[in-house]
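Task card 7
Instruction: Convert sequence to structure tokens.
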Amino acid sequence: MLKQAYQHLDEHVETYLATIALIVFASLVVFQVIMRYFFGNTLAWTEELARYALVWFVYISGSYAVKYQRHVKFSVLVNMLGKRVPIAQRIIDLLMFALWLAFLIFMLSLSIEMVNQQINTGQRAPGSQIPMYLVYLGLPIGFLLMSFRVLQHIIRAIFDIIKNPFAPIAMSQSEVD
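Output:
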């Protein structure tokens, strides 16, 4: 039961969180348009909250892109090398994931520091009066999810090097698209 719950969350956590953020964003924008054109009145808090929901959506969607390796990458030279020496490509991929994880952990620590600073200052959003640390909380959550996904790729890469060091590397679906 616990394993099934983990697998379900592992498969869908970004989808759920990003969907919620996108629904909030879209609903607030539509509400703001209706208020402006039909009632001649705008509410400052709707634009503000929509902007914050969009920020959350972007960082959570970044994790989704990492999970399915849909991020921008320049791999022409690595792929050419991989056709001749597959283990070299596997090792380079592992090193790139490790560097990426180091960067994400660094950004995670900075974003946590920023959230703590917002908690300590008690700053509130001007229109909606929500605490700003709730807005900034999307960054560490996004970086944490991205770090987790890169760590999953690192583990897969290590097992791939151990199990198939010299096997030809199949093109991934992202390279085919």
